[in-house]
Amino acid sequence: MKKFLIFIFIISIAFVSCDSVYINGELDGMWQLRSVQYIDRDLYPADEYPDASPQDIYYSFQQHLVLLGIMSEDSVPVRYLGNLEYKKMQSVTIGGIRKFMQEEQAATLDDLRQFMLYDTLTIFEIKKLDDDILQMNSKGIQYTLRKW
Question: Of 32, 64, 110, 136, which residue is the least packed, with the fewest Cβ within 10 Å?
Answer without folding.
Answer: 110
